[in-house]
Write a structure and sequence with these properties.
Length: 310
Amino acid sequence: MISFGPVPSRRLGNSLGINNILSQKVCSYSCIYCQVGLTRKYNVNRQKFYEPDKIFEEVQKHLEKLLEKPDYLTFVANGEPTLDENLGKSIEQLKKFGIPVAVITNASLLSDSLVQKELCLADWVSVKVDANDEMVWRKINRPFHSLRFEQYKEGLLNFSLLYKGKLVTETMLVKGINDNPELLLKNALLIQEINPLIAYISAPIRPPALSFVEKTDEEAINRAYQIYTEAGLAVELLLAFEGVNTGYTGNAIEDIVNICTVHPIREDTMQELLKKDHADFTTLDILLQGNCIKKVCYNGKSFYVRQFNS
């Protein structure tokens, strides 16, 4: 349950995912587009989930099963990875493998100097910047009630000055919510202050937490690209499917469940994964009938996502 993949990443190449959040989703946000689903347990107080030694051991076992080393070890959790009180210690442990460590964070806890210090241990950090407008930020990210917009922005800017690794931003565009020219310009100006290596612009390509969420249209995406570029940002679009070349360990059930927990598996990717694990659709039927996963459709494509019993 701790490590999964590797999965093909549009940003990081071949990425071995690390889910350092125990069990069901724990997060400081409940983003309307989140591919992990709604947040059932809101939290902004850091706590211990897995011991760093346990994460190290699980990743070591996983790496031993792979034919090739991944490009990155990536903290991409079933929730917000910086809620893990042991994040810094885990990063330090994992760097012993000689593989770059990445963290994908919603940046909500960056006002905490300890979180900043721990993230500085990572080689690559992605921070979420969906809106430079409090009302829109609350509408799209739905933060925990105690979080303050100005505090979030201050944390972003302070961390950007402190961090010496590869810092990138990611903006998820949702149709009719944060994709108009005025909001895009305001966001570009904030990202300009952060001064990332790359400002990524993405759109939902997997089933979102809320069904009304729609991918923005091509015109809005082009407009966002122009506005960000004119602000002096190095911009990349994250709009394409990453491909079906997902890593495998030989245990089909574990591979499917572990990946689905944080990364919905598209139908064609599932077929390829079963083939690599020398399994067939009987394995898939067991997981579906046992309510471990469920099949959903989004934008004309079928996906398999993790299902947690209440």
